[in-house]
Amino acid sequence: MNSPSSAHPMNSSESIPLFDDPIVADVRRARQEILESFGGDLEAMLRDVMQRQEERKRKYPDAPNVVPPLEPEDFKR
User: Fold this and answer.
1) What span, in angstroms and rounded, lies between the C-alpha atoms of 11 and 13?
2) Cα separation of 43 and 57, whole Å?
3) CA trace torsion 38, 43, 47, 48 (10° rounding)
4) Which of 9, 13, 36, 57 stands the most exposed, by the fewest C-beta atoms within 10 Å?
5) What is the DSSP letter of 38?
6) Alpha helix (H) ranges present in the chain?
7) Greatest Cα pair distance in the chain
8) Gap between the Cα atoms of 49 and 52, Å rounded
9) Is the distance from CB of 44 to CB of 38 less than 8 angstroms?
10) Contact between 72 and 30 (Cβ < 8 Å)
11) If you ran DSSP here, which 8-state letter would residue 70 be given?
């Protein structure tokens, strides 16, 4: 009995082409814009996100374990 080792015709050492997904492209573009607003400093961006999350937690004392998601306008300076 001869069965393929995977459903994909390429082996793991070959480059697997990905399809173009407009949603993924939009998320990547937005991520890049946000990162650029921090001068490319990923650590600074993450510190800012964590600070914003902490600030949002304090607004909702009834639900201490729930942090509302950040909105795109939250990243505008």
Assistant:
1) 6
2) 21
3) 10
4) 13
5) T
6) 22-37, 42-58
7) 63
8) 5
9) yes
10) yes
11) P
